[in-house]
Amino acid sequence: xxxxxxxxxxxxxxxxxxxxxxLRQWTTVGVWGAVGANLHAPDVRILSGTxxxxxxxxxxxxxxxVSFPLSSGIGLGVRAxxxxxxxxxRSTADSTLATNLGAVExxxxxxxxxxxxxxxxxxxxxxxxGASYQLQGQTTWQDIPEQALRVALGGGVGWAIPxxxxxxxxxxxxxxxxxxxISSATQWKPWKVTQVRLTLGLHFSFPKARPLPEPEPEAPxxxxxxxxxxxxxxxxxxxxxxxxxxxxxxxxxxxxxxxSEYRLQASKAEFSPDRLPMDALSxxxxxxxxxxxxxxxxxxxxxxxxxxxxxxxEARDTELPRGRAEWVKQYLVTSWGIEPGRIAVQSRxxxxxxxxxxxxxxxxxxxxxxxxxxxxxxxxxPEVLSPLPLTADNQLYAxxxxxxxxxxxxxxxxxxxxxxxxxxxxxxxxVLRGQGQPGTPLLWRVPASKLRAGELxxxxxxxxxxxxxxxxxxxxxxPVDYISSLRKRAERLPDRTVTRFSLVLFDFDSDxxxxxxxxxxxxxxxPFVRANSTVRVVGYTDRIGExxxxxNLSWRRAQRVRDFxxxxxxxxxxxxxxxGESLLLxxxxxxxxxxxxxxxxxxxxxxxAAP
Length: 611
What we know:
Layout: H1 2-19, E1 28-42, E2 44-46, E3 49-51, E4 55-69, E5 74-84, E6 88-90, E7 96-114, E8 117-135, E9 142-143, E10 150-159, E11 161-162, E12 167-178, E13 191-205, E14 221-226, E15 231-242, E16 247-249, H2 280-285, H3 287-297, E17 303-307, H4 320-336, E18 343-347, H5 362-372, E19 374-379, E20 388-399, E21 402-410, E22 415-424, E23 427-435, E24 442-445, E25 458-466, E26 471-478, E27 480-483, H6 485-491, E28 496-505, H7 515-525, E29 534-540, H8 547-566, E30 573-580, H9 591-597, E31 599-607
Parallel strand pairs: 15-27, 15-28, 17-18, 29-30
Antiparallel strand pairs: 1-4, 1-13, 2-3, 4-5, 5-7, 6-7, 7-8, 8-9, 8-10, 10-12, 11-12, 12-13, 14-21, 15-20, 16-19, 17-19, 21-24, 22-23, 22-25, 25-26, 28-31, 29-31
Helix pairs in contact: 3-4
């Protein structure tokens, strides 16, 4: 029962100690005093008798100590001092033998810290500092011969009580279990002395100067400047030419388009290209049906379909590229009634003009692989794959077509994220987000179709958040001039025709104008360029590659097209820009979207005579 109570007390004390805030340990020096019980176990035989009864005496000690930490929970210490070990021994004849024993002790030990609780464990070495005895009835003291080096195992448990930042009071209960006798003389051994001590230590530490707290970094501040003072929104007759990619992209390891991003019509009677949305991505998702309809319109045209793979894991399936080409042929034969003999099927392990499959960047390599899993189309009559023109009256047209903000962000902590929210009449139009320091400039291609007709200002909120979670924001608005067709007639304002081309599609990582690109510019673009036209040429890229490289590549692409047009119509006004991947025209998670982004967009505005 007693052992259980003792165990309970020890466990409770240990748990309580662990729950305390750990006392940070520094190098310390200190003094200590001790009082305790000396437990003698003698078997001493001298002339007056044999003294072999256990005896207990009161001991005391005094000394100094030093300790230093090895880690937050372990340290080393050394104590030195004097210990009194005497007691009165009794013989079998009940005579007494008074002893006076002393030793200079040295106690190197390890310190284990559990919160404020600490446990010293070590070996005590004691050098004799006087050993004498007095027989019962005598008045003189005699020396005990051959006093031996005292060796004892030592341990204990203590509690640190901080009195100040540098002074600690430490009560400690300890025990010393001897391994050697008091004397090495034959008649004086065995004679061992076990000690139970209550020690009180006063320790003085030398803590390192605490570093001054770092000043709180400045909170972020933000400012924006816009490249224009107003946004013009006009109803115009808009004609846009949309390119047809000569590629059909397949899912990985698949030779069918089931569940892909392509839209396949249930029957040819339901399909009309003129009803497609005025969006290049939507147009190309209906590529097979556009090609099927045109093959019916040009009965002498023949088509070649070449299946390819990504050249990696797919290359092991030698039937896969031909299976892709056969699927395209079968769709055109089944859904559009094309004569099978008009469609030739070929296969290649790898495209002749591949995308970035050899890139060292894993994300770019995955994008390139997805673009190389395809079927390539070529026709004997160019009209089968020629651009698709779509025209609509009273279409909203925004000028400028893109807005550019210069962001100035300051603060003491790094910027974690940013957000630009654009809205009109309380309705969100677009949200741009990014991680880290915002790039400059911030570009936004104005989606005229998303804006509301009317002179409703376009409002924006730009917000940044730093690494400490602090935010800063700035707000602003852009006036909108809305010019409707009714207003033009009422105020006799000049009308204008806007024609937009995204026809010049470049090969991957290239700014070269291929013969087919030059033919598109000659036949489709130049007829719309007049001496009084304003021609805006803007280059774009996809997301593959380095941002700075893509910026330069898009500029080179736009400059090539501008030089080609200006050499033939020098009187027109030309504006050139390159946005790289800062402003992506289409969804780059789609291989169709990435291909369409490798373009130069040409917008031609030609004023008409006033009504």
